[in-house]
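Postdoc handover notes: sequence design on the structure in folder B. Input tokens:
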């Protein structure tokens, strides 16, 4: 006998595991594309051999456009009052998902012998198309969390499962990509080719494989998006809160309103800290493993320890949030990450490379444990910030608030790696020499760069959550009570 579907008071299917799995699948789909971003820098630096200064400038240009693009699409979604068969959020996600089938591969067209100007054109055009498709899918996906449920605990669960989807979507490429795209070099006799400067075996990046892997990841991402669209239930009317539809979107006004939304600013700075530190370190970490440890193909496995701790907290996150609150728990976790970042400063001074690697992994584990709680609730923090916007202004602008959050995240994604590439150049990295021709001093400098980035990330995150984000448990209770009363009054008036 078919199991009877349980409905809520509004006739919608009750919130349950299928919603959590579906929302996780959505972020898995996003990260089948997003997880390639770290490889972009390595691909163009090592395989396409763009000079660090030029690549830094190109990356900054496309990421600034990327950041500007988000609020425009977010405002378009908020202003769109048309009726779609799937609903406007799912419709926009579907359009973006179709584009991402192939768009992720466009920035990895293998042409290492092309002229520098042509390489620059391929990079910009490929990245812009890829980013446009990603934004069309990701902005409505992130905004949709606050429409699946209004319950704070259920939102925290959705945020956790989104993080699960994100983690799985990141972990698979993190582990498998380096193994697939790096090859250890041997001579005609089968003996390892050793860099005389660093004493480690030379590894070569296989650029053509990156292109085909990106195609395959696009297919997997599309399948995940389709599962989410089919299975997740929207329980809050997408156009339930009336706004002034005749008022045109004003970028400056939207920015001013966002800056007045203190929890949105705090949550955004915390996310920026994560990108400025951890994600900006991606290329430097890969280069460090290739030049200092001689194991670029295994760099993903070593980095995995920074992400696994999230699964420690996942089964308990609802109880943790209920007892201590999202802000309070995240702040404590960020402080633990600061401790991990401080310990990471020690590994570069350890002369034995095996011991240095063990210490690096230990410090990264502590960093990841502290980051675990924040990772589980980070998206719920933004959902609460959207409620805060409605509480203070009377307008529910999911797309605009989330897209401005995404704007600053992506700005950090552009500025961070651009600055890191410049620092790498200043520390001695020379693109024309590849990973096999770098000096011992350059390889050693990469260790200090990676350690410093992780520590900076943890400190900025702690400050953002502990001192700027202001939705503590008491304030949350007051906000939810007043919002509920306001919505009841609105419903009675319209009736």
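Designed sequence:
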């Amino acid at each position: 006998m078919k199991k009877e579907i349980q409905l809520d008071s509004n006739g919608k299917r009750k919130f349950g595991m299928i919603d959590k799995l579906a929302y996780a699948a959505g972020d898995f789909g996003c990260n089948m594309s997003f997880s390639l971003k770290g490889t972009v820098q390595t691909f163009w630096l090592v395989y396409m051999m763009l000079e660090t200064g030029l690549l830094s400038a190109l990356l900054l240009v496309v990421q600034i456009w990327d950041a500007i693009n988000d609020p425009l699409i977010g405002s378009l979604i908020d202003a769109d009052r048309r009726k779609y068969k799937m609903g406007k959020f799912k419709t926009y996600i579907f359009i973006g998902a179709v584009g991402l089938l192939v768009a992720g591969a466009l920035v990895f067209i293998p042409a290492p012998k092309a002229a520098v100007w042509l390489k620059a054109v391929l990079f910009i055009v490929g990245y812009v198309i890829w980013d446009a498709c990603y934004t069309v899918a990701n902005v409505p996906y992130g905004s949709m969390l606050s429409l699946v449920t209004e319950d704070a605990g259920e939102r925290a669960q959705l945020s956790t499962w989104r993080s699960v989807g994100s983690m799985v979507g990141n972990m698979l490429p993190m582990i498998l990509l380096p193994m697939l795209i790096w090859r250890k070099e041997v001579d005609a006799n089968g003996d390892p080719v050793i860099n005389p400067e660093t004493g480690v075996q030379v590894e070569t990046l296989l650029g053509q494989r990156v292109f085909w892997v990106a195609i395959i990841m696009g297919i997997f991402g599309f399948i995940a998006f389709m599962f989410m669209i089919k299975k997740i239930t929207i329980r809050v009317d997408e156009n339930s809160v009336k706004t002034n539809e005749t008022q045109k979107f004003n970028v400056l006004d939207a920015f001013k309103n966002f800056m007045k939304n203190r929890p949105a600013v705090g949550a955004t700075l915390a996310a920026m800290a994560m990108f400025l530190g951890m994600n900006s370190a991606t290329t430097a970490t890969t280069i460090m493993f290739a030049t200092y440890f001689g194991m670029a193909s295994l760099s993903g496995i070593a980095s995995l320890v920074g992400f696994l701790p999230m699964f420690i907290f996942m089964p308990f996150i609802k109880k943790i949030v209920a007892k201590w609150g999202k802000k309070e728990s995240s702040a404590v976790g960020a402080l633990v990450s600061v401790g991990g970042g401080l310990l990471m400063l020690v590994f570069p001074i350890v002369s034995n490379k095996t011991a240095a690697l063990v210490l690096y992994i230990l410090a990264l584990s502590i960093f990841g444990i502290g980051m675990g709680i924040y990772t589980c609730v980070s998206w719920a923090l933004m959902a609460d910030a959207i409620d805060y916007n409605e509480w203070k202004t009377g307008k529910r602008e999911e797309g605009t608030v989330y897209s401005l959050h995404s704007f600053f995240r992506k700005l950090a994604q552009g500025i961070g790696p651009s600055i890191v590439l410049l620092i790498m150049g200043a520390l001695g990295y020379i693109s024309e020499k590849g990973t096999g021709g770098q000096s011992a001093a350059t390889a050693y400098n990469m260790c200090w760069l990676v350690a410093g980035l992780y520590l900076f990330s943890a400190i900025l995150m702690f400050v953002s959550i502990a001192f700027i984000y202001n939705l503590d448990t008491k304030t949350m209770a007051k906000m939810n009570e007043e919002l509920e009363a306001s919505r009841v009054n609105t419903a009675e008036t319209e009736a």
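Context for whoever picks this up: The radius of gyration is 23 Å. Don't rerun without checking with the PI first.
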